[in-house]
Amino acid sequence: MPKLEKSSSGRSPFGDFLAVVLLLAILGGLGWLWWQSKHPKKKSAPKITATAKPKPVITSPITVKPTPLVVLPPPAVPVVRSNPVVVVLPVPRTNPPVVVPVKSAAEFPRPVRDVFEAQVALADWGISAGSIDGAIGSQTRAALAAFQRLHGLPVTSALDAATRAVLTLDNPPITTYLITTNDLLRLQPIGKTWLAKSQQSALDYETILELVAEKFHAHPLQIQKLNPGVNWANVLAGTALKVPAAAYPEAPERAALVVIHLSDKFLEAFDAETNLLLHCPCSIAARVEKRPVGELHVAVVAPDPNYTFDPAVFPESAEAQAIGHKIILPPGPNNPVGVAWVGLDKPGYGIHGTPGPEQVGRTESHGCFRLANWNAAYFIKLAWTGLPVQVVP
Q1: Would you state the pLDDT for residue 287?
Q2: What is the pLDDT of residue 292?
Q3: pLDDT for 104 beyond 70
Q4: Looking at the domain assignment, is residue 203 inside a domain?
Q5: Helix or strand (DSSP H, E) at 260
Q6: Distance between CA 35 and CA 24 in Å, rounded?
Q7: For a disulfide at 246, which of 116, 217, 255, 363, Cβ 3.0-4.6 Å?
């Protein structure tokens, strides 16, 4: 290694070099400190990676300047919603609200759908199909034919499309009837003999089933069918029963003509313009010689009549022959002539009601023309003394 020589001052050149370097370092450090004091270094924000979300630090409440509310004018045309409208009924707060749908349109009037409804609707026209039973039979066919003639339809005696289009229901075909105390007070057993019947205060209904069936022009079996859960042996006041909504229109002042058809077993009444007022089944005399053909006239009109029992009219009855004299039976629906008697100007002949409406038109009489009690009660409103009655074969 070469040997360093000393300078003339006694110091080596290397020592002088180190002194200069040290002095420069000191000056540089002092300069750096002066620069830092004049230009402080800013701290950089921490980097956020996908694996760690920073926790927000709220140092003070944030005040948001509200945006002015813009109120739009209502639309010129109301908006029609496609959803069904409902009405919320007010209820106590402890219960949930009850929502009742509002019907969009009334169901009635509408065409009849079956024979039962047709039988009910025909009553609105004063046309009886006999006891309403929901079955198509000869009396219902005759009633449909009468309706078809009245409206100028093809007479098919069937519930066809053309008839359905005209025969409509204005109200539901079934309604509710509440049994009253007066209904129950009317009930009484009916004596089994002529003599026993003559000793009663009235010949009224025996059962609620009988009363309700006649009141609503129905067969008792139809009433039972509509009310399968009813104990008919113990019906109390206030019991609600479903019944046919059959009712005749208000009767006009009087009829102008009555026609009885023997072969078809029905009666019809017309006004002076030949408009049909009443069509109903009719029983006729069992013996042909007892069936008068031609023109008769009404001689007497008696609502709720009593009945004079004459043994001579019932020669086949051993009981009648044993009584041997006339007796009087009190009024009532179970009276032999029912609730109405319209006497004719041929002795012994008349148009009247009957205690067995289901048998009208199916059984025969001793000579009179028998109607169901509801038809007899309506007919008596049309009849008057002198009213012509045409009996045709």
Answers
A1: 76
A2: 86
A3: no
A4: no
A5: strand 257-261
A6: 16
A7: 217
Predicted TM-score (pTM) of the model is 0.72
Q: Residue 355: give the domain boundaries.
A: 257-304+339-392
- pLDDT of residue 222 exceeding 90: yes
CATH code: domain of residue 352: 2.40.440.10
| 53 falls within a domain | no
What is the Cα 212 distance to its own chain's centre?
20
| Distant-in-sequence, close-in-space partners of 55: CB < 8 Å, separation ≥ 6 | none
Strand segments (E) across 102-230: 110-111, 168-169, 174-178
Do 156 and 266 lie in a common domain? no
Task: Determine what percent of the chain is predicted with pLDDT higher than 70.
Answer: 74
Question: Tens digit of pLDDT for each residue in 162-178?
Answer: 999 999 999 999 999 99
Q: Total structural domains in the chain?
A: 2
From residue 245, alpha-carbon distances to 106, 193, 217, 224 in Å are 18, 36, 9, 15
